[in-house]
């Protein structure tokens, strides 16, 4: 293997990636560039992050604001498929990984780096998502995954490692839960959740009000939808990220968007997580409500199939593959015309579409009324049923004639 | 067409089928046998129904209790597929039709009748479900669908028709909502719901408490699951129908199981309905929770595909077809081992699995702990990822080398 | 129903549509416009057709050359999905119907006609395909299907009907086989084929040499493929229709492209047909051969799923639906990059790809060779397998520990 | 890792596994048991194999005849799904691996061995298939894959290795093609095939006559099929393996069953192979022909989906998984009733079903004849089409009214 001179690291400012910087320099004798993607993880996470990276030994720190692009080009395409991993999970972490990895790999190519590095553990999905994107975008670059290489096995070991090198770090020794946040969601794993027979406690939830503590008064919100995307909230036009942010606030207040699941990781084991996706849950409900009006029976079914497939592709880090692009093309085609308005009620953990309309609606009182003579004739039903069940009748007659 | 001598009618005791009895006798000059299936529509519906049928002119009335069979042999097989029509609807009416039609057709064959009759309208799904079952079970029998034949077009016309014949009927002139109930659910259509921009009002809901009026105190219930079926509630073993009845009460109290959707009918138009499935919603959540522990990634995905297919087959009245039987066989195979316990929280319209365990769980703290050395080695991940993304890497290298 | 003034008829010049012209005029008291689509059915079919239409009573006859458009915009999009109806049928009749019906409906709208008419029988698929297109393109126009209305039940009756009206007709009384031809294929039904236990005889085949009589010498042909379309034959660039015509000649000579199947019609019954698709069979083999080089495992599988779905949609006359467009969008996305050269051997009824290459090939001797160190490491396989079979191992350990 | 005392090796008698025996003993200091599965690879392969194993250092050699079980319990279940990997490959090697690995693992458990060993290379599929089965059946046993461990990199190295130890070996230095054979097929890889632009030469084919050299006279064979399995050849009842053997002879004579494909391996790269499956190709054609008569449209389509899924599961070594069992259960359900007779013509590389019949046929001249009045009414078609295309009509009317 050839010598590595410059590596670009996906840097979060947390304990792990802080330790990775000196570790890379010592073990690979190379320059380390920190790359920070702002995907809406929160201002607290980003504050002073450049200085922190430099203090840890990075030669430079690049921060890129990817929030609008992530919502517009990664989240909405996925939402038009209706993807819910294993029927529940809104794919919050999964959708953020490809955009981060792509920006990181492109920076590395631009800077002439020879390697890419991430701080994902060796038992999780994220390593696959990062490296799947790297393979597609920068196939020549070496990938370094310290958690699969080093002998540091605990927070204590990491803190000691930093202390020995006199690198400042505010991380505490005790950290019960493992978390990941972006504009779309926050996830929580570990601690009490490790036993599936334990209920989540209030420490498992970060963004959202406990439904049992949420306002006793329900709240309505009206969303404008155009071609499968929410474009306005209560009549105010907004960018994709602004819509999400606005709905995160509303949803969180009412305890909307909590799920607690055991899921199959790509790497063959199961894990349990609590996810909070307040705004996303509202958006999903709104899109599905407009689809109810617009999609015919076979299209609706295919959209559900696309969602099932996309849920695995996105979860499995397959974003930058011809298959994923093909599925997104199909979903985008179906989303044309998914346009209308939805009123949703938020109440103690639930979001429910209570009013919906669309100029493309295949449901219409008018048709239902004049339908009898102009569009639909009761007598047509007989012919339909006869042909629809003809194979059954022939089969049954066959049996009787045996 | 040959003369019809005896017809077996799916009789409900309502206005429509009450008028059908004399209409059949007058128009087909035939004997009419009333058939009543007890699928849990409620005691009020069944009280005095035999006398009513005779008073309307039926020569006999057969009542069959199908409740346990319906839950055990129609509902649970469907549930193991996870079928939710268009992502939401728990198929309450759809699952009851095949068992009713089958019992009716078998009675007709036993009695030597020449025809079968139902009171379904010509714009709905139920006519297809009844006649699809008839075609498979009694392909030689003639089917009479009065709503596609007669000129009676309103409740008023039906009431007049009965009054002229001095047939007693307690039905009122005004009936805003159209309903169907069985042990699993009650549906409501019509009235204010005909405009999708209208919210449902409280008349649209029959069984369940309004979530906003439901108890402020949440309630826990523990279900025992064996091979995809709930066999006990809070530690008490129960028959399938008893489980459902018990959970209907609990769910209804907490406002669980309401949905309000616009759906694609099989006959090409859309309709809007409010459905209440309190117990069923709890059972579905419980089965899905145990599956989270037991099914591996690919099995889970296939179960979701089976559910998608089954939802359409059941909705479309395809129960008695080789395809439906094949899909149920696949789902039954996967359901073996879906065994465990689930604790669910009922609260203001929501049901949430908060604790779950299974002796077949693929999740296990123990594995997660000793996993490192015995079952899972961090370093395996690198090999996995390299091969998993090999095609992406080759494709990208190809592009760069062009 | 309102009075019909002008109807546009899909006119073929055959016995049925010749009789339909006077029948329409007599029964609907309307002007009849003949519309002839040239989809490659052959010059003999088109010769003198305008005069024939006028002689039958049409007020005008419009002939439109749709050959290139059909191959480019209907056949190739379908081919990129790989659609083979029930595993065998290359959809020759099915793909021609939407383009004919669309051109016919557009002509009717342009001419201000109030109705559309076709000569399809009431037991076949084509009526559904025509009327499905009409519904999507000219939903307001009335549809007339004489075969479902009139009492003419035999060729003799039709010939008498024309003779009584002194309309010249060259059709003979005896016509054993029913046929349909276009640039892509010719189909044969009826006669000896009506018993599935009969072998087809030589009258069942029209275009192709009997493989047992085909040249003893095999022949090679080289096709250039670009993004899922054949663009050259033996190095000569050609239009889509020219490619097809050239390969029809070559294939027919060698007896390539015969199939004899029993298929499920959309209308619930089965039928048996012999189909000849000489050029099409060669093109399919060529496209599949390039795909073998270019598509990765998951993409290939999805392409097969798309083909399965598309085969039913196209067969069922669903071309002008959002679902079909969505599936074609997905297939088109995958077809980008399906580019390369294929040498095919034609020999006594078979076509076999014997050489293939592509600049986008994921197969490469070079990778296979230097692969060991640069792209693929044998040791990666262990990690891959361990994770790939981890769920199996955990499940089995579970069982043993019970 | 704990000490290994006894290892069971899947032994073929070839160069690789001959070298593995001493290598295991030297490197693991353990007893080596040779296990030979007779899956129809040929008598030449099996002759003297026990003596050879002992001469190489094995302490014992177990030979198990798995031919009938393989055809009955592995091949036919797969065939009922219609599985063809990537549209072409009849899965010959894939179907043999699970039964071999299962018998080997069960022997190891019986003998109290601590490890399992196979001779598969580190770039192929077979290692995954073996180890996938091991994980499911003997999850506690250690797996040794010498090709991923040792430094022997060529035939020369292996021959030297054996010579140094004075172990007799008849293998030659030059071996151009890599082959695998069992009762179902023989595969050939390597040599001239490594460049996809090369045609296969006659050395690439082992069992089958070159179609261009095959008899000029076609031959007919009649197969009896019952519930998806061939039970007789030309009227003679035979066991599953006997049927296969008989048809292998007939097919090989006529050059039937050759394919030459580039396929996606599970491990992310592509490979090219020539496969010969003479009898299997005939059986597949026969089963599909009976299905044409028996399966309705939706069942046929689902059978194709099952085949697509099964092709990947079987290829990928997923036999012993709940998913594979579920899919086989679905296919088995559909295969009930796939019963009838088929006459097939063998001619110069092709097999074609030319006659077929079934008592369960949904095709029937009788229905086609009396069908008009009793089972099918032309006028039913109108109703069918109106409802079938209702959503299209409503959508189009919507557009026009905008």
TrEMBL record, chains A, B, C, D:
Location in the cell: Cytoplasm
Domain Arginosuccinate synthase C-terminal residue range list: 177-394
EC number annotated for this UniProt entry: 6.3.4.5
Molecular function in Gene Ontology: argininosuccinate synthase activity
Main location: cytoplasm
UniProt binding sites for ATP: 10-18, 37, 119
Keywords assigned: Amino-acid biosynthesis, Arginine biosynthesis, ATP-binding, Cytoplasm, Ligase, Nucleotide-binding
tRNA processing found in the keyword field: no
Chain residues that bind L-citrulline: 89, 94, 125, 129, 178, 187, 263, 275
Gene3D superfamilies: Argininosuccinate synthetase, chain A, domain 2, HUPs, Single helix bin
Positions that bind L-aspartate: 121, 125-126
Pathway annotation: Amino-acid biosynthesis; L-arginine biosynthesis; L-arginine from L-ornithine and carbamoyl phosphate: step 2/3
Catalytic activity reported: L-citrulline + L-aspartate + ATP = 2-(N(omega)-L-arginino)succinate + AMP + diphosphate + H(+)
InterPro entries, A to Z: Arginosuc_syn_C, Arginosuc_syn_N, Arginosuc_synth, Arginosuc_synth_CS, Arginosuc_synth_type_1_subfam, AS_cat/multimer_dom_body, Rossmann-like_a/b/a_fold
Domain called Arginosuccinate synthase-like N-terminal: residue spans: 6-168
Entry similarity comment: Belongs to the argininosuccinate synthase family. Type 1 subfamily.
Quaternary structure and partners: Homotetramer.
Name this protein carries in UniProt: Argininosuccinate synthase
Organism: Vibrio stylophorae
């Amino acid at each position: 293997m050839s010598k590595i001179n410059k590596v670009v690291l996906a840097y979060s400012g947390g304990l792990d990636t802080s330790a990775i910087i000196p570790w890379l320099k010592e073990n690979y004798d190379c320059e380390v560039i920190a790359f920070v993607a702002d995907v809406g993880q929160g201002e607290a996470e980003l504050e002073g992050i450049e200085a922190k990276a430099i203090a840890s030994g990075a030669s430079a720190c690049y921060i890129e604001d990817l929030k609008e692009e992530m919502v517009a080009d990664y989240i909405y395409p996925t939402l038009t498929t209706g993807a819910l991993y294993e029927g529940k999970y809104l794919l919050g972490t999964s959708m953020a990984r490809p955009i981060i990895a792509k920006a990181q790999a492109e920076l590395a190519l631009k800077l002439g780096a020879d390697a890419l590095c991430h701080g994902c553990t060796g038992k999780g999905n994220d390593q696959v998502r990062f490296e799947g994107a790297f393979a597609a975008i920068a196939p020549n670059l070496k990938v370094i995954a310290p958690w699969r290489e080093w002998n540091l096995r605990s927070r204590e070991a990491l803190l000691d490692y930093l202390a020995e090198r006199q690198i400042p770090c505010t991380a505490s020794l005790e950290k019960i839960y493992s978390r990941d946040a972006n504009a779309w969601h926050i996830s929580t794993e570990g601690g009490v959740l490790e036993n599936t027979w334990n209920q989540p406690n209030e420490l498992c939830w970060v963004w959202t009000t406990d439904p049992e503590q949420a306002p006793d008064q329900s709240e309505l919100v009206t969303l404008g939808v155009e071609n499968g995307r929410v474009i306005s909230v209560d009549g105010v036009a907004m960018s994709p990220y602004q819509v999400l942010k606005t709905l995160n606030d509303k949803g969180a207040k009412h305890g909307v968007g909590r799920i607690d699941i055991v899921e199959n990781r790509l790497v063959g084991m199961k894990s349990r997580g609590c996810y909070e996706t307040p705004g996303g849950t509202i958006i999903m409900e709104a899109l599905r409500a407009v689809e109810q009006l617009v999609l015919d029976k076979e299209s609706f079914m295919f959209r559900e199939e696309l969602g099932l497939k996309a849920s695995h592709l996105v979860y499995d880090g397959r974003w930058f593959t011809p298959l994923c692009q093909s599925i997104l093309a199909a979903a985008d085609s179906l989303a044309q015309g998914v346009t209308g308005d939805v009123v949703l009620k938020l109440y103690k953990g639930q979001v429910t579409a209570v009013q919906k309309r669309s100029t493309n609606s295949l449901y219409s009182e008018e048709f239902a009324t004049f339908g009898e003579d102009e569009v639909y004739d009761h007598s047509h039903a007989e012919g339909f049923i006869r042909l629809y069940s003809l194979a059954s009748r022939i089969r049954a007659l066959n049996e009787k004639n045996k």
